Amino acid sequence: MAGVKDPQVQGSAETTAQPLGDDFDRLQQLILGPDYSRALRSIAAQSETDRVAAVVAEAIQQRAQTDQGVQQAIEPAVTASLDQMIQKQPHRITNVLYPIIGPAIRKSVAAALAEMMNNLNDILSQSLSMKAWWWRIAAWRSGISYGEFALLKTLLYQVDQVLLIHKDTGLLIAETNTESVISEDTELVTSMLTAINDFVSDSFKQPGSRIESIRFGEHTIEIIVGPMAVLAAKVKGSVTPALVNNLNETLEVIHQRFFSELEYFDGNKTPFTEAQPLLSTCLLHKAQEKPRRKPWLAYGLVSLLIIGCCLKFGYWWYAEHKKADIVQAIKQQPDYILINQSQTGKQLNFVLLRDPATPPPEALLAAMDTAPWQVGIEAHSAPLHPAAIQTAPEPTADQRWRELVANVQSTRLYFSVDSNQLSIEEANKIPLLVNSLESIAELATTLGIKHHQIVVTGFADPSGDPTANAAISRNRAQAVADLLTTNGLSENLITVWGVGHLNALDMPTEDQRIVTIQILSSEPASWTP
User: Do 269 and 370 fall within a single domain?
Assistant: First the structure.
């Protein structure tokens, strides 16, 4: 039957198939040789990763020459990786961008130098104008150089408005302005800035070029372009490098904080509400710094006061020295003894005793330059050489000592009531006292008396209280002592006492207003009684 197989035939076929497989293997070995087996074992030992790694570079290079499929396939992964690295490790990006930052810095320095040259050109163009001369005067009054003052006048600015624009779409993202600025259609302004920038790029066939600033009147729109956003600032006055640096830093912070929002911007401005404080930091204002004016009027008044004081002091110094010269000239005049001197304004008054044989004081004044003083001299004639009228024989030294001491101690100088000035009659006793005291000093040296002292004692009447009497008696004794020292006696030899009123004195009151002189000394043992 057709549906039944012959068991003998079936077994024969199976028996025949077994030898065919072995024969095929033997045939491959005969044709390929032993290298085929080793190649199969090497392939079996490699993993799929190793086999792909061996050919992936050549495969990418070959595919890139055909189309952009590889770039499009790996672009999302590379972009996501860069985003994560920028957010987590920004310093690595900084290291990578360092070669690019150098040219940017050089460009910024070049811009700063260009601005400085423009300012200098403006200054030089006005150097011969009236304003320049006023500036020079103001700079001199302020104590700064003309260049510093001129730069201070030219580098003034105020940022009135700041706009943040999305670079790709040209849409306004955020804005801020000062209170004095009326907010206009900022969307229209943003569109115009974008259109102008595109027009310049297309006209000059430089797609990478951009407008950095636009000037109109006294305003300048400074444009800072970033990778995904543009910062436009409306500036009144001159744009300084410090202002540009502030705008650049603000734009960098915005890119760092709103990187994802800027990259996937779809027209929604809500995420950029937090950028408002950043834009507000760009509203800088540099007011005109008026140089501090020096108080020249006060300086002038003080200078005049100082000059006046110096002149007055100089005049006083000259007058005092001239006064001292006049007094010294009178004292050095032979046979003139100065009794008293006083001053009333520019009038000098002198009371003196002179020997009748000496020239009158008018002749002395005529030979002196007394300016600026007016000098009046009241001179009284008195014999100033008592030795000439002595008739007794010359005594011995010790007798002469005792005689002189007795004469001095017996001398009384009388004063008026409530006065410490000697009258002319009493002042005539001073020359004799001076001569006697000088002779006593000479005899003390001759006789070997090592210690002697002149004690001037003043007394007062009972008309005043004890305190007043003590004071006036002291003043009377001091007045006599001053006359003695004025006429050449040493102050070291004179002691002044004021004892006031002594109740034990039984004498008329006029005899109690006196000054006495006592000589205290140590007598040598060689004296003869």
Answer: no
Looking at the structure of the chain, the number of domains it has is: 4
DSSP character for 177?
A: E
Q: Could you read off the pLDDT tens digit of each residue along the chain, which spans 529 residues?
A: 344 444 444 444 444 444 555 676 666 666 666 666 666 666 665 667 777 777 777 888 888 788 888 788 888 888 888 778 777 777 666 655 645 555 666 566 666 666 666 666 555 555 556 677 777 788 788 776 766 666 556 656 778 888 888 888 888 888 888 876 666 656 656 666 666 666 555 555 555 556 677 877 667 888 888 888 888 888 877 787 888 888 888 888 888 888 888 888 888 888 888 888 888 888 887 755 555 566 777 788 889 999 999 999 998 999 888 888 888 887 777 777 777 788 888 888 888 777 777 778 777 777 778 888 888 888 777 665 555 444 556 678 788 888 888 888 888 999 998 888 888 888 888 888 888 888 888 888 888 887 788 999 999 988 888 899 999 999 999 999 998 888 888 888 899 989 888 875 567 888 888 999 998 887 654 555 4
Contacting residues for 153 by C-beta, under 8 A, at least 6 apart? 135, 288
Q: Return d(Cα 415, Cα 427) in angstroms, integer.
A: 10
DSSP helix/strand/coil, 286: strand
Flag whether 39 is in a domain: no
Q: Are residues 496 and 413 part of one domain?
A: yes
Is residue 383 packed enough to be buried (19+ CB in 10 Å), middle (13-18) or exposed (0-12)?
Answer: middle
CATH number at residue 198: 3.30.450.70
Residue 150 belongs to some domain of the structure: no
Q: What is the pTM of this model?
A: 0.34
Q: Which domain holds residue 236?
A: 155-286
Residue 460 in contact with residue 414, Cβ under 8 Å? no
Cβ–Cβ under 8 Å, residues 241 and 108: yes
